[in-house]
């Protein structure tokens, strides 16, 4: 991974939160990501969409400084991925929730609040915001799957990150709660945060400002939901995405 010597602090970079130029990742001799070129604007919600094995999780790990890349240029909030000064500027919700099962909902979120220098009051507000106020004293181990995921989301939100990266944040949630969370995500973006969200629920793409469509480690397109519907000749975004995949030749399979 290439870290320029003079790029150790986040710095203002105009309207760009993420920039990737010629990003390649090889793992075990396989191409996982291939020549990705894209930017993500600040204060936006960008959806990361693609079939299983398209490279979505690997891309997120690169941006968080957890995955080395083979070549290319990547900046996150003006700094290279993994720069120490980014630690409090980023929030990351993985598919495997980072939650302490032997702590209550509230204590989990308060612990992560302390790591980010935030108050208990901030933690309690976030617990309410993700719809867990009624179970705040319950041990995480005693929660349902959807509730458990929301604890992980609260832990990612509590630090008020400039960039929030979320891998399938609404999986296992009912439609009402998904809608409430997307309203919360929109408020975060309106307040200046940048969100990168992967999802397997294609209709959730309509909540995003822009979409990154991945297949087999390649970026098929960066476009708005409206442009996806037009290009795929279908208002059903899942069908529109399938149409774009079908018009793109196979290039060999990538890993996730």
Topology overview:
Elements: E1 16-27, E2 30-41, E3 45-49, H1 56-63, E4 71-76, E5 90-93, H2 105-115, H3 120-129, H4 145-157, E6 163-167, H5 175-190, E7 194-198, E8 210-215, E9 218-223, H6 225-231, H7 237-246
Parallel strand pairs: 3-7, 3-8, 5-6, 6-7
Antiparallel strand pairs: 1-2, 1-4, 8-9
Helix pairs in contact: 2-3, 2-4, 3-4, 6-7
Walkthrough of the structure:
- With 256 residues, the chain is an alpha/beta fold.
- It has a domain at 90-160.
- The protein has helices spanning 56-63, 105-115, 120-129, 145-157, 175-190, 225-231, 237-246, and strands at 16-27, 30-41, 45-49, 71-76, 90-93, 163-167, 194-198, 210-215, 218-223.
- The strands form two sheets. Strands 5-6-7-3-8-9 form a six-stranded mixed sheet, sandwiched between helices. Strands 2-1-4 form a three-stranded antiparallel sheet, with helices on one face.
- The longest helix has 16 residues, at 175-190.
- Mean pLDDT is 88; it is low at 1-13 and 251-256.
């Amino acid at each position: 991974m290439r870290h320029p010597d003079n790029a150790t602090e986040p710095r203002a970079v105009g309207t760009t939160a993420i920039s990737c130029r010629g990003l390649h990742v090889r793992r075990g001799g396989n191409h996982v990501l291939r020549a990705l070129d894209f930017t993500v604007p600040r204060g936006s919600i960008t959806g990361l969409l693609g079939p299983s094995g398209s490279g979505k999780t690997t891309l997120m790990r690169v941006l968080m400084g957890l995955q080395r890349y083979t070549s290319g240029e990547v900046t996150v909030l003006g700094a290279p991925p993994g720069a120490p000064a980014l630690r409090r500027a980023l929030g990351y919700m993985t598919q495997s929730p980072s939650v302490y099962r032997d702590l209550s909902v509230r204590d989990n979120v308060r612990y992560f609040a302390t790591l980010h220098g935030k108050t208990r009051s901030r933690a309690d507000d976030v617990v309410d915001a993700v719809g867990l106020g009624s179970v705040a004293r319950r041990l995480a181990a005693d929660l349902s799957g959807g509730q458990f995921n929301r604890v992980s989301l609260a832990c990612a939100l509590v630090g008020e990150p400039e960039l929030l990266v979320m891998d399938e944040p609404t999986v296992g949630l009912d439609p009402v709660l998904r809608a409430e969370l997307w309203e919360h995500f929109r408020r975060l973006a309106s307040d200046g945060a940048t969100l990168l969200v992967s999802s397997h629920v294609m209709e959730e793409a309509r909540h995003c400002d822009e979409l990154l469509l991945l297949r087999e480690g390649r970026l098929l397109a960066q476009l708005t939901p409206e442009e996806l519907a037009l290009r795929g000749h279908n208002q059903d975004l899942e069908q529109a995405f399938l149409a774009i995949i079908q018009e793109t030749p196979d290039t060999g399979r990538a890993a996730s």
